[in-house]
Amino acid sequence: MIDYEFFKAPSLKEALEFLGSHEGVKAIAGGTDLLVDIRKENARAKGFKYLLDISGLKELKFIEERKDCVAIGALSTHTMLVESLVINKHFPLLASAAKTIGSTQIRNRGTVGGNINNASPAADLLPPLIALKAHVKLRTLNGERKLPLDEFLAGPYRTNRQSDEIMTEVCVPLLGEGYFTNFQKIGRRKAMNIARLNLAVVLGIKDDTVFDPRIVPGAATAYPIRFGKTEEAISGKRIGDIDPAEIGERASEEMISTTGIRWSTPYKRIALASLVKRALETIFREAKADE
Amino acid sequence: MFSTVNKPAERVDAYEKVTGRAKYGADLQFAGMLYGKVLRAKHPSARIKSINVEKARAIPGVWAVMTAQDVPCNEIGVIIQDQQVLAKERIYYIGDGVAMVAAESLEIASKALEAIEVEYEEIEGIFDPLLSKNSDPIQPERASNEVVHHKLRKGNVEEGFAGSDVIIEREYETQFVEHSYIEPEAVVAVPHENGSLVTVYGSVQNVFATRDAVARCLKADLSKVRVVQNHIGGSFGGKDEVVSAMACRAALLALKTSRPLKMVNTREESILESYKRHPYKMKYKVGATKDGKLVAMEIEAIADGGAYACQTPFVTWRSVVQATGPYEVPNVKTDTYGYYTNNVYTGAMRGYGSPQVIFANESLMDELAQELGITPFEIRLKNILKNGSVTASGQKLDRHEVSLAEVLKKAAEAIGYEEKYREYSKPQRGDKRRGIGMAISFRGCSLGAEAVDGAGTVLSIQKDGSVYLYSGLAENGQGLKTAFCQIAAEELGIEMKHITFLEANTLISPDSGSTVASRSTLVGGNSVMRAAESAKRALSRFLAKEFGLPSSDLVFKENWIYTPDGKKLISFAEAANKAFWAGVQLSHVGWYVAPSIHWDEEEGRGNPYFTYVYGCQIAEVEVDMGTGEVTVLNMAAAHDVGRAINPEMLKGQIYGGVMMGLGYGIMEEVETDEGYIANTNFDEYIIPTSKDMPNIIPIIVENPDPDGPFGAKSIGEPTLELGAAAIANAIAQATGRRIRSLPLNLERVLLGHPLRKGRGKK
Ligand SMILES: Cc1cc2nc3c(=O)[nH]c(=O)nc-3n(C[C@H](O)[C@H](O)[C@H](O)COP(=O)(O)OP(=O)(O)OC[C@H]3O[C@@H](n4cnc5c(N)ncnc54)[C@H](O)[C@@H]3O)c2cc1C
Q1: ipTM of this predicted structure
Q2: What is the least distance, in Å, from the CA of A276 to any CA of chain B?
Q3: What is the CATH number of domain A58-173?
Q4: What fold characterizes domain B454-593?
Q5: Is A155 on the interface with B (CB under 8 A)?
Q6: CB neighbours of B298 closer than 8 A, spacing ≥ 6?
Q7: In 10 A of CB B690, how many CB atoms?
Q8: Which residue intervals define the domain FAD-binding PCMH-type in the entry (chain A) (predicted)?
Q9: What is the pTM of this model?
């Protein structure tokens, strides 16, 4: 059994003060990852003395369109993503991804900040947010820093968060003209489903030619990263010359070159290729329809 | 024709449950109650070198720490008494209890467990029943690891195969699955209450089996131990031996401390300790003529019994009787075996030895049809049992309607089988491919020749005309209370609202054996009828005398009592009141014993069951060829139940059974690795959600049985046994590839074989 003391933060300032002045504090937002780990006495959840409940911090619960980005407060829930007009307008793949998370209850409790900070290899928001080149904002009592999400992630269940920092928001830069997005996920059932594999694809198409492709599979590598070689293989190519099946296979090769052969590789090699193929086919179809 | 039965009466416990008033085992509170917790084994196979409990005992708030030394009789079991209440010298599986504590709070109890020091010496375990077969006995006092061997013989298979035009041989395999009752095991033991030595309340499937275990463990008279059932949050066959063990432990601690004691498993404890559905390895050989008539079948099925015998002897017996499927086969040789291993033990689970063999024999039928170039529908119609057919065990079916053709045709029609089968047989393009598959079964009702099959009910009319029932069979969530109240109301001609069903209680209810084998409505329902008939007779005789009537053939309906020629005589309530004050006996016991049956274990034949039910389920699936994902789109389920006592509850059984069959078929598996269990909660043990539920088309077929109450037979288990087989056949059609092991999860469907995680010891 893990013993700890529980505190509830009335404001962000007080939360940061508490974090700044105590050792061994864990923040709890929706608790949908943390409480599971505490119950399991998972090594990840050990070695803390205080649980700091930040779930009441209304100032971190918002979705806001700004000049060149959409800011998502760290305490925004998955349901908010699903229902947000702004998100559905600019980043439909983020709403699609959020829709696949857990169940209604989990989507009502679980937060964007929790999903990112838990940094699970299978987290459903990480691939789309990485593909969207999101930045995260971290606050301490004395200041704030902003860094790209892919630099914030440090490994499976590991981030570069300092112990006195709270994540306040995620900034997702608006996509320019001609971008298309797609999200795919495989699970063992139709809900309450941790991804066996997921995938976010963001790319631009101009004059039938692909630009700025971003391909981010999840649960394929130790933690979600962009598949640079696969992206290269389609960048600058005319969509008529791209064989989605072949690109799918390339993505699988890239996965294996990163992870080596694992028990799950025989399955994931085929399944990832299918997802990549499917995402590209869907996007190309949409691009055609747009013409 | 009927006023209460055959109608969708409201569940009598619905209001209590949806308002949260219903009390479950874990809700109970008693003054001075302590909490019990069990320390479980660290290894699946080990010798206990020493146990030191001194530090645990010294913790303030700890009232008792007990080990096997403190148990008067440490071996329990319904069939073979080999299950340890607490492990004595040997650990046989990972869920074995080693020591237990009683403390003032759960937290203190948990701390105390951490303070118990156990020294183990690991012993190499056996985790494969095929290896176990030829290994030295795991339990030193046994001659071998064989728990049981059943055989069935008919005709001569050698001659049969010699006379066959087509012979195929196939091997099939099934997995461990967990019952997944939503309420983990929970009991409260209260010492010295109302004249009993100990009373156990809780989530008990079979009050008498649990009572027997506790009395045996305590070396007490059966009449000194009272077991009372509470509302139960699901069981599916799962709250028998594991709850009996828990009840023994709680009773021991309660008596030791002279305090009420509550024990509740966490989900992890439940999945680690509780018995599972048997994994089977099966070899089938079948011979047929070229026009598709079955000639011979040879079957060997090997069940992993795990650490304790539990229900293995009877589970494998049902398998031996039903292994051919519902077909006329002149020559049959079937052998089923159960072996001990150091895996989690296996026992009763809804279906009870049938889902495994049905997965095999129904896959086999499709494979044979393909070989013969005929459709799955045709091969079944050619070979199914009909009125007057003789089963594999040599039983002539001439006492009830053998309705296989009817259920098959009704299910096929409802789902549009033939058209879809033709459509999906054409070459399919693209990633999403469809298939449709069927499975049919016959199922012996009730216990069969396993055991004595009697049941009783106490029916007591009060002086205001209200009635209560005490039954020896227990509500398991299936709706037994409601069905029994409907039967009593119909027979007494009163409204159901005047009837109260009291909980099963071993010191009041007649010992009726176990609520298992889909026997309750059939056997227990008959006992309710008998009790009501007897009460009615007593009232009628009294009234005839009272009113000076020539005949006591009175008619009871709509809360009134009428003369045979239809004159309104007196209300039921008034009659009851008069009768009471005249000293007429108003409490009656109804007892019913099932018609006689027999089984010759030596010869491997007999009339194992007095009646059978028939069912057909057809699944339509879509398979994602790129990811292995399976979506079950539609499922038609036609079941002949004799008579639907409550058609709506019956549909509930069908929906639930189909969903459990779907989970068994495509996702569920307790992952064991050298006896360790990897997935001990529902984050990793995957069961279907409401979103996985297909469109289910329930079809109730009624051919009243001469021996059933109002003609009723069974429904609980038949609904579950067919789904996995039907889905497997549908997937085979969609993908063109046959998978012969369950579950048909992502990896098997995509690759054709499973992947092992090999995450090693926990
Ligand atoms: C039944 C179930 C189903 C699930 N299904 C899915 C699924 O389909 N897909 C998926 O991706 N996830 C799933 N999850 C996981 C989980 O719901 C999500 O990851 C969720 O977004 C976590 O958010 P939370 O607010 O509950 O995090 P918490 O559990 O509160 O926190 C998680 C971690 O993040 C830290 N943290 C939280 N907020 C901040 C902050 N603002 N600043 C710094 N650190 C912070 C915490 O300290 C903790 O370490 C599921 C969980 C459950 C229980």
Answers
A1: 0.96
A2: 11
A3: 3.30.465.10
A4: Aldehyde Oxidoreductase; domain 4 (3.30.365)
A5: no
A6: B157, B161, B284, B285, B286, B332, B333, B334
A7: 9
A8: 1-177
A9: 0.97
